[in-house]
């Protein structure tokens, strides 16, 4: 391409690699240690720079972009920036997303001259940020000489893409513009690892053995299914249809198996499951866990951990009771297994007896006070094939999980990391990559207060995101886990705040709804506002929370409160 440089610098090299792996937007906050690097990235015509209000939001915006795009980049300055961006990097680690965290760092001459520097701890050891990054990434590199940059950049990016985890690249301020060699073919970085043939074969045989003699197989889908890529989602659908069995889905994997499919039996979340997913999972005598994640949250304080021996198919290995197979790629394993399994729909026959009757949804009169249930009813009506729904930590998790996803609708949740405020920057990052989709956010008042500034980027980029802010005056989920005065927060005028972000030229709209009719009207305004975000503040009673939240909160609190075990006991 004629626009590419003939002489490469470290910054050019990095820019070209980011483009080659499919990144079109890079999220940044400037600082003197990264300014030359930002110029270099800007100079690449295929990258759009996206400035964020702070580094926490910047990292979470990149986290959301990685959900939409498969990989993302976040560029910050040393320490004051990077330490805040570590939070979104932690999220990317927990949520299995390859986020490339890039930090500017001090001039290479300063450490050896024992200079004290700004934006540092005030000691002359500048390696601490790299050491910290090693704990929250799958590969952390610091470039000390320009000639090392190509090798280290390629290594970090390749590790991130393969492991579906974040990586870290540190570039000193005086090296971004330093010359280095030009990049070689990108396939050296992106070429996937395929399964070991013998291990794949043996794992499929072991799966057939695991299933033989079993009468009641069920598939349980977890969030790593989508993260695995490699056509794993399509392969799972084929496997499920070949088996004919019930398919339950973990809450963090909602949407990864079509909810309108006749074998979909609901969200398995222990006692707060939807439909009869828990009854059928606990009835099973063989459980094929595909990309599942069992935590205290997803098992409702360990009350819902399946108690039969499991087959666990992970992104790059499969484990059975008594056998383990490394280097077996999930997509390949599921495809292979689909050709070998026998059809057995016993769990579907049983499920059709257990399946609850559809619930009659009450439609509130326009003048009725707004309730949680009415908000859910109205959001349900908004969901279509092009909708992506973000649900924030809080009661929005439970309300969102209850909704039925029509074909094509997508669902995003950050259940492993669970950072309140994630949904605002993450939805912003996601929507930049998917302007063709309608992004809707369900977020609580407490969460919104953490990252509210990033609404101003939605304004800046004219993104028509709909934010449904549920104002129950405080941290209700925490109230249910463990109450105290700390769960109260200062109320804001949310509708006015969002309009303040417009400055002279924005198109954000802020509305508030206290009745069912007001919400209906506000939703109409939101659907007509195609040039900016619309925030709808929905005021509900402080105690109007879901039954599921109360039940889940009870068991999570009990798990938190287990007394220390004496050693040896
Ligand atoms: C906290 C949580 O208002 O939602 O529906 O009222 O609970 P609900 P809000 O957004 O409040 C959220 C609040 C304080 N969790 O109830 S879930 C602890 C927490 C966290 N993340 C961070 N800090 C604290 N999850 C960054
Ligand atoms: Mg709240």
UniProtKB/TrEMBL annotation:
Thiamine pyrophosphate enzyme N-terminal TPP-binding domain mapped to chain residues: 9-118
Any single GO CC term annotated in Swiss-Prot or TrEMBL for this entry: cytosol
Reactions performed catalytically: a 2-oxocarboxylate + H(+) = an aldehyde + CO2
Keywords for the protein's UniProt record, in alphabetical order: Decarboxylase, Lyase, Magnesium, Metal-binding, Thiamine pyrophosphate
Metal-binding keyword on record: yes
Thiamine pyrophosphate enzyme central domain ranges (all copies): 206-304
Keyword Cell cycle: no
One Pfam family this sequence matches: TPP_enzyme_C
UniProt cofactor note: Binds 1 Mg(2+) per subunit.
Domain Thiamine pyrophosphate enzyme TPP-binding: 410-538
SUPFAM superfamilies tied to this protein: DHS-like NAD/FAD-binding domain, Thiamin diphosphate-binding fold (THDP-binding)
GO biological process entries: aromatic amino acid family catabolic process to alcohol via Ehrlich pathway
Cofactor: a metal cation; thiamine diphosphate; Mg(2+)
Record: residues binding Mg(2+): 445, 472, 474
InterPro entries: DHS-like_NAD/FAD-binding_dom, PDC/IPDC-like, THDP-binding, Thiamin_PyroP_enz_cen_dom, Thiamin_PyroP_enz_TPP-bd_dom, TPP-bd_CS, TPP_enzyme_TPP-bd, TPP_PDC_IPDC
Coiled coil: none
EC number: 4.1.1.1
Molecular function via GO: magnesium ion binding; pyruvate decarboxylase activity; thiamine pyrophosphate binding
PANTHER family according to UniProt: PYRUVATE DECARBOXYLASE, PYRUVATE DECARBOXYLASE C186.09-RELATED
Family, per entry: Belongs to the TPP enzyme family.
Protein name: Pyruvate decarboxylase
Taxon lineage: Eukaryota, Fungi, Dikarya, Ascomycota, Pezizomycotina
């Amino acid at each position: 391409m004629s626009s590419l440089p003939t002489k490469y610098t470290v910054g050019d090299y990095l820019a070209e690699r980011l483009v080659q792996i499919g990144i079109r937007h890079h999220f940044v906050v400037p600082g003197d240690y990264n300014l030359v690097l930002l110029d270099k990235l800007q100079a690449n015509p295929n990258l759009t720079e996206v400035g964020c209000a702070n580094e926490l939001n910047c990292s979470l915006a990149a986290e959301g972009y990685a959900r939409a795009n498969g990989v993302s980049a976040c560029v910050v300055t040393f320490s004051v920036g990077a330490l805040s961006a570590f939070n979104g990097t932690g999220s990317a680690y927990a949520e299995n997303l390859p986020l490339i965290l890039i930090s500017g760092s001090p001039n290479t001459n300063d450490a050896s001259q024992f200079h004290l520097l700004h934006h540092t701890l005030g000691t002359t050891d500048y390696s601490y940020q790299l050491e910290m990054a090693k704990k929250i990434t799958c590969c952390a590199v610091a470039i000390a000489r320009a000639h090392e940059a190509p090798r280290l950049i390629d290594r970090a990016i390749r590790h991130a893409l393969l492991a579906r985890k974040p990586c870290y690249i540190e570039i000193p301020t005086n090296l971004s513009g330093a010359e280095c060699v030009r990049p070689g073919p990108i396939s050296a970085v992106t070429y996937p690892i395929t399964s070991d043939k013998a291990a794949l074969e043996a794992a499929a045989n072991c799966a057939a053995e695991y299933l033989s003699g079993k009468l009641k197989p069920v598939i349980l889908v977890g969030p790593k299914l989508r993260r695995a890529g490699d056509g794993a989602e399509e392969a799972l659908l084929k496997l499920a249809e070949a088996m004919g069995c019930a398919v339950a889905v973990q809450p963090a994997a909602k949407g990864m198996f079509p909810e309108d499919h006749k074998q979909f039996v609901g969200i398995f979340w222990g006692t707060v499951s939807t439909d009869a997913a828990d009854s059928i999972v606990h009835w099973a005598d063989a459980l094929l866990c595909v990309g599942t994640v069992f935590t205290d949250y997803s098992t409702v304080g360990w009350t819902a951990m399946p108690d039969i021996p499991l087959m666990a198919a992970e992104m790059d290995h499969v484990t059975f009771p008594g056998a383990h197979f490394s280097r077996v790629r999930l997509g390949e394993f599921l495809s292979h297994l689909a050709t070998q399994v026998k059809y057995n729909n016993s769990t579907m026959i049983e499920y059709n007896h257990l399946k609850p009757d559809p619930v009659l949804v009450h439609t509130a009169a326009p003048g009725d006070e707004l309730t949680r249930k009415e908000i859910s009813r109205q959001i349900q009506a908004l969901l279509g094939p092009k909708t992506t729904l973000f649900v924030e930590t809080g009661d929005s998790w439970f309300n969102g999980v209850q909704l039925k996803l029509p074909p094509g609708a997508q669902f995003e949740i950050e259940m492993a990391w669970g950072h309140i405020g994630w949904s605002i920057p993450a939805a912003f990052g996601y929507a930049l990559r998917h302007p063709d989709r309608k992004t809707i956010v369900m977020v609580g008042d407490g969460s919104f207060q953490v990252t509210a500034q990033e609404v101003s980027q939605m304004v800046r980029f004219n993104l028509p995101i709909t934010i449904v802010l549920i104002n129950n005056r405080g941290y209700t989920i925490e109230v249910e886990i463990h109450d105290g005065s700390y769960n109260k927060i200062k109320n804001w005028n949310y509708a006015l705040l969002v309009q303040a972000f417009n400055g002279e030229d924005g198109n954000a709209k802020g509305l508030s709804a206290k009745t069912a009719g007001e919400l209906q009207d506000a939703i109409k305004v939101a659907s007509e506002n195609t040039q900016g975000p619309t925030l709808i503040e929905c005021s509900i009673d402080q105690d109007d929370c879901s039954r599921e939240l109360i039940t889940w909160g009870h068991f999570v609190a009990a798990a938190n409160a287990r007394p220390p075990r004496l050693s040896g006991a």
